[in-house]
User: Which sequence fits this backbone?
C-alpha cells in the first residue's frame, strides 16, 4: 500500500494533535494536583513548588496518554488497515523516540520517571520507544508499507517535530 499525498497532510496535523494531547495530559495532572501550570506547545511546567511525587505524576501523565493513543491506533490498523490510525501510531512512536534521544541533553518525561523509581535514566525511555517502534513495524507490515513510505514518513515527521519545537518559542 502506498500513501496518498493527503496522508502526509494528515500526518503533520496528527503530530500537532498528538503533541497537544500529550502536553494537555501533563497540564491536567498538574492542575488536578493543585499546581499552577504553564502550557506551551512542546513543554508544560509548574510555576509553583511541587513535591517529587507530584513532579513524577505530571511527568508520567503525558507518556501514558501517548502510549494509550498508540495502542488504540495499532489495534485499529490491525483490524481495519487504516492509514489515519497509522498516522496516530507513527506520531506516538516517533515523538517518544525523539524525546528519548533528547535525554542525552536533558532527561525527558520517561527518563525522569525512570530515575524517580531508581531504574536509571535509560530504562523507561528505551522500553517505551522500543515498544512503540515494534508496534509501528507490525502495523507497517499489515499495511504492506515499503521503505519509500517509511522514508517519507520519517522526513515529514522530522519536519513536523521541528515545526512544533520552533513554534513553541512563540507560545510561551
Assistant:
Amino acid at each position: 500500500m502506498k500513501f496518498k499525498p493527503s496522508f502526509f497532510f494528515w500526518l503533520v496535523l496528527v503530530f500537532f494533535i498528538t503533541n497537544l494531547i500529550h502536553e494537555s495530559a501533563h497540564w491536567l495532572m498538574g492542575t488536578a494536583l493543585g499546581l499552577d501550570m504553564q502550557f506551551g506547545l512542546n513543554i508544560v511546567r509548574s510555576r509553583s513548588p511541587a513535591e517529587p511525587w507530584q513532579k513524577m505524576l505530571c511527568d508520567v501523565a503525558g507518556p501514558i496518554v501517548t502510549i494509550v493513543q498508540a495502542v488504540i491506533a495499532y489495534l485499529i490498523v490491525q483490524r481495519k488497515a487504516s492509514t489515519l490510525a497509522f498516522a496516530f501510531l507513527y506520531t506516538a512512536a516517533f515523538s517518544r523516540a525523539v524525546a528519548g534521544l533528547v535525554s542525552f541533553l536533558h532527561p525527558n518525561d520517561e527518563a525522569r520517571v525512570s530515575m524517580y523509581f531508581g531504574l536509571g535514566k535509560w530504562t523507561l525511555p528505551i522500553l517505551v520507544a522500543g515498544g512503540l517502534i515494534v508496534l509501528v513495524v507490525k502495523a507497517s507490515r499489515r499495511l504492506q508499507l515499503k521503505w519509500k513510505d517509511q522514508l517519507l514518513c520519517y522526513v515529514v515527521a522530522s519536519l513536523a517535530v521541528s515545526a512544533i519545537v520552533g513554534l513553541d518559542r512563540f507560545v510561551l
